[in-house]
Design brief:
β2 and β3 form a beta hairpin. The protein has eight helices and ten strands. By secondary structure, the chain is an alpha+beta fold. The chain has a four-stranded antiparallel sheet, with no helix packed on it. It has a four-stranded antiparallel sheet with strand order 2-3-4-8, with helices on one face. The chain binds zinc ion.
Length: 285
Amino acid sequence: MPELPEVEITARRLDAALRGATIESAMAPGINTLKTFDPPLHALEGTAITSISRRGKQFVIECSGGLALLVHLMSAGRLQLYDKRAGPRDRTSRLLLRISDPTHRPELRLREFGTKQAAWVKLLPADAIDDEELIATLGPEAWPQPPEDLQALLNAVRPLHTLLRDQRVIAGIGRSWVDEILWTARLSPFKRGNDLSDDEAIALREAIGSVLDGAIEHYEKVIALPIPDKLPLPLLVHRKGGEPCPRCATTIEQVHYEDYVMCYCPAEQTQGKVLKDRRLSRLLK
Ligand SMILES: [Zn+2]
């Protein structure tokens, strides 16, 4: 799932390429993609894109005429800018914004891979974006300045791995980058938020900043339009179960959940303890 660094680099590239572009037409081939009906999608026709930015893991595409699109990629969506328009049989197309002026690439496309149609878009008056529930309930942004009051923010009887991915607590981090952040801070994914010492909170805040900075700097070097289907995530721990920890060479352990895998270094994060693999324990019940 695209998280803060992936959405940030995409928003930067698209903003640079599309600012000022005039929308010729807007279409939503995805059956459930457009979640609003007033204003209608064709209200975008003839407007110009004034900015493309990021809020948490979402995009906001602002247009002239006081309109804005809120775009949520969910787990398998991509926002890409193409030199050619999609054919009618492209089954990945969810929303198409066709650009009329020839100085810009002709089609901004929301695509989605797999069979699920989960990615969604809302067309709203631009001044209504902040009141939209998803945006209004976002916690403070994890980047560029991780929240100063991180310790207070995380003061709950919930594991760090869950808290940091809760968009209402802190916005932008998901299942990939949380593993990298906790490993960088040498903290157990299961440590409770209300059990964080002052020093640990400082280390965690530094890790959030440095990990997300590092990912975005990496993408600045390697990501170009149209925006690749698969972004090359510069991961050290996540999805590296069974490989040696890049810092201490202990084997990285993993815990399987229904739809994701948590990875950690037992020597540095859990005092040598190997956490139960939920998948295995379910099978053994
Ligand atoms: Zn290690």
